[in-house]
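Good morning C.,

I know you're traveling, so I'll keep this short. The sequence:
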Amino acid sequence: MSASPSDNHDKHDGRKERVIELTLTRTAGHEPPPNPPAGTIYTEFGTSALTSTGQPFGTWGYQGVVLAAEGGETQEQAIGTFNTPEGQITVQGLNPRQTLQNAITGGTKDFSRASGYVKINGTGETVELHIFQR
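The tokens, ready to paste straight into the viewer:
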């Protein structure tokens, strides 16, 4: 593998877990307003770096659609892609806004047949990719 992110290999049903923590920098797109109404679409794009070293680790893109906004809770459908030197990782989720955890739905190259989840920390400055592979 080309980079040395912080790897934490544990067994999960015979699969290894690899955790990559990235610091994200937003370079384009727009965020939704506070308390966005249903139908609001927003996009973000930027660069990522390994949190542990600051070494660049590709780009990322994200699109969210607000599906419902009732009683102070907002439900959204989110899709995203991390384009890294080792391949792409795709993520998707249907969740309350600010839950900030989505499923890894697949990948390319070194991440072929990957599954797992992405945990978004704080207000999205860092993410943890929890990748399960054989």
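Safe travels,
E.
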